[in-house]
Amino acid sequence: MESICTHLKIGSPCRIGTKIYFCNITFNGVFYLDLKDYSIHFVHKFSFEPVHAARLSKNASLAYGHTIYFFPNYTDVILEYDILKGQEKAIPIPDFPGKFVDISGIARRGDKVYLFPTEIGKGIYQFDLQKQRVEKDMALSSLFCRDFLCSSGHILYDGKDCAWIGRYGGSQIVKVNLAEKQIEDNKVLEGIRIFVMCFDGNHHWILPMESTDIYEWDMEKDDLQIYTNEHIEWRKVDHIGRTPYSNLIFLEDEILVLNCYAKNIWRIDKQKKTIGDPLEFPEGFGLANRQFNGWPVYAQYTMLEDKVLLYPYAGNMLLIYDKNTKKMSGRNLTVSEEDVPYLREALRKNLTENRQCFEDGDFAPLEKFLDVIEIKRGKGETWEKGSMGRMIFQKCCGKEKG
Question: Which of helix, strand or coil describes residue 290?
Fold first, then answer.
């Protein structure tokens, strides 16, 4: 029987020494990336979640001693894992009005970690690292109206008392004092719909929805600079109504613009006020895993001494950007059944329950579909008319390049 391989997708990366631990977001599993040779190693499967559970943690993690906390995206608990003892724990988030708690960002003050859900209007929470308990912060929660949403995956925290929160899809930036539990500033940037907000240490940068411009806001001078992209190229998917950019990386001598629905990763020219000079992708780069067609190509990253690691959602490889040469190389993030013993079961369940063609390229052999047919036949089940045919057509004819 042919061994099945699949791409991994890195969620909530957490660096400990020479290893980047992460929660895979295509199925249940913790892995680490070895920075010495960029090899991938399987670590753990959370026993309290199904093997095929996807997107368990995506935006935020925290290392506390030798314990990693992966904050939830598509579950209702904090996923705790002790890397020395090999022990797991599920820490519930109480009183959240919803099935899943999508944590957009966190802010740590001493032994307290503030948790900001994307649906921040449903509450802000405190996680006590010593007591291992989560409680709703009623005073902070009362500051936001019910329909307030956080900008995607970003809470800007000054490391002391204040956090800046951009209103997703709106024009509002709120500065919250976590110690005093009050709003210190409330700015409305007219005509801008916020998707992501970033901070370079001095100024706020806004990546808007449905616009190819990027904005730099000097809050002290209340000055707004606009950077334009006159040569935008889009991914080969329906990009109407989609945002082009997902994140910014501030290096010593340049600013990189990561791509959501834009085809390229760009650079910002601060003198010309333009977005251009796209980075050249390494050979073999493309898109993988149709489940992530609506996701950014790249969004999260880790800054190393002389390199930057870019983690894929829709992309098919880890990108390694060399700060000195300004060039990118790539590494495949793939695992097989030899690496993850339950991989076939996880992918099989995803196919049967979600009915999705999970992989493009060479990692979804026809045998996988035949396995699924036999399983459903044995259960007396059938596919909806045309469902299997569509999946095979997507696999054989629908391969997509970036």
Answer: helix
Question: Cβ neighbours of residue 103 under 8 Å, at least 6 residues apart?
Answer: 59, 60, 71, 72, 73, 115, 116, 117, 118
User: Is residue 359 within 8 Å of residue 289, measured between CB atoms?
Assistant: yes
Instruction: Give the closest residue to 11 by CA, choosing from 254, 296, 272.
Output: 296
Give the pair of three-digit tokens for residue 52: 């095929």
pLDDT of 50-84, one tens digit each?
A: 999 999 999 999 999 999 999 999 999 999 999 99
In whole angstroms, what is the distance from residue 307 CA to residue 317 CA?
Answer: 16
Q: Residue 363 carries which DSSP code?
A: S
User: Per residue in 341-369, pLDDT tens?
Assistant: 999 999 888 877 755 545 544 444 434 55
- The H or E element spanning position 350 is helix 343-354
CA distance 362 to 184: 53
| Reduced 3-state DSSP string for 38-88 | CEEEEEECCCCCCCCCCCCCCCCEEEECCEEEECCCCCCEEEEEECCCCEE
Nearest-angstrom CA–CA distance, 358 and 391:
9
Q: Running DSSP on this structure, what letter comes out for residue 129?
A: T
Kindly state the greatest CA–CA separation across the chain: 69
